Amino acid sequence: MYKEREYRRWVSSGDLVTFEVKEAQTDLLICACKDLENQARQSVLNYRKDIEDYIGKNRSFYTSLEPVKVSADAPEIVKAMARAAEKALVGPMAAIAGAMAEFVGRDLSVFSDEVIVENGGDIFLKTNSVRHVGIYAGDSSPFTGKMAIEVPPSENGLGVCTSSGTVSHSLNFGKADAVCIIADSAALADAAATAAGNAVKSKDDVEEGIAVANTIDGVRGVLIIIADKLGTWGKIKLVQ
Known about the structure:
The chain has 240 residues and is an alpha+beta fold. Helices cover 30% and strands 25% of the residues. The chain has six helices and eleven strands.
């Protein structure tokens, strides 16, 4: 059975202050140079309202499994989700967790030189040092807890997002235990992880999933795990 937020123990950030922010379906684990819970909560509320208000007037933004055009006056987080979806050829809601992590993280970076925001396995990192994001592909996976992805320092921030067809509650049409994407933004990484994950329905499809990720502009690397098979492409450095 899937354990809610089990993956949170696979994020290494012992030198930073860690706190959580929960509002409705949004559940963030945040690491920063100091406690910024109040600022983070206000950001979450603001961005949730932006998305909910837009959906209220544009239902297809919520229901579509394909990219949709958004209005010129749409909130910035909505535009970011739409851009990510267009690049990955998925619906805009496939980018919501990564987008929320990224936008909250960028808000907090005004107050903290380093920020890590995790949202349902989707992570925004703006750090001055190398970080390790552990691999969680379900309790029965031979790779869980055995390795981590080394994430380089990033002054501008980047996204490390994971989609799964076996241990996630999010919509995914594939069967991969974990599809992890590193990208220039967390919104894009989230959307790309969904797109690549949708292509992996058996161990024979790992190369197909990698090919999908490889076509998405802004993706730096991909890791795919299904059963006892693992495949990578791009700037993915695995460490034990």
